[in-house]
Amino acid sequence: MLILCIFGTLSFLLGIILSFTAYKFQFKKDPAIEIVNKLLPQSQCAQCGYSGCYPYAEAIVENSEKIDKCTPGGSDLILEIAHVLNIEESEENLVIKNKRKKLKHNVVWIDEKNCVGCSKCATFCPVDAIVGAPNFIHTVLERFCTGCNICVLHCPTDCIKIKKEIYE
Fold it and tell me: Among 87, 96, 157, 168, fewest CB within 10 Å belongs to which?
């Protein structure tokens, strides 16, 4: 019982020391990175070439990365980031990737004959465009699909196919 009290007291003291050092030596983040990160859609789809939205925001602010790589964000996001960072960006130079504008991009569909309902595609979809319950057939909500094709990599039965779709 004495050993338990000693370890409990030591754990409490170490917790206080760790809390104090975490408070005293806080990691300072660049506020511009935080602002750009909040503007990004947080879909973590990696279509920009980075592992997620935060690394892409870091690259934009620190490495002068192009601001037109976020497919789910589209041209509206480009204009918002350009406004926040005071970048002159004319609308003629924008890469229109927004579904609301006329554009052609890939979307996926599920061959329901081969779908076994494993839910792996829905689990990995960064924008929740795949609907279905475990052990039931799944389907893709094409309106929300960004064409990142992450679900294709995780499908064990290869029932997810890529098709081209035009949105207006």
Answer: 168
5 is in an annotated binding site: no
For residue 145, say whether it is annotated as part of any ligand binding site. yes
Phi, psi dihedral angles at 131 (to 5 degrees):
-120, 135
- Nearest by Cα to 127 from 36, 44, 40, 49: 44
Q: In what helix (H) or strand (E) does residue 31 lie, and over which residues does it extend?
A: helix 31-39
Digit-coded pLDDT (tens) for 119-162? 888 888 888 888 888 888 888 888 888 777 888 888 898 888 88
Cα separation, 117 vs 74, whole angstroms? 32
Map out the domains of the chain with their CATH numbers.
29-98 (1.10.15), 106-164 (3.30.70.20)
Is there a binding annotation on residue 53?
Answer: yes
115 is in an annotated binding site: yes
| Tens-digit pLDDT profile for residues 81-98 | 988 888 876 555 555 444
Cβ-in-10-Å burial (0-12, 13-18, 19+) of 47 comes to buried
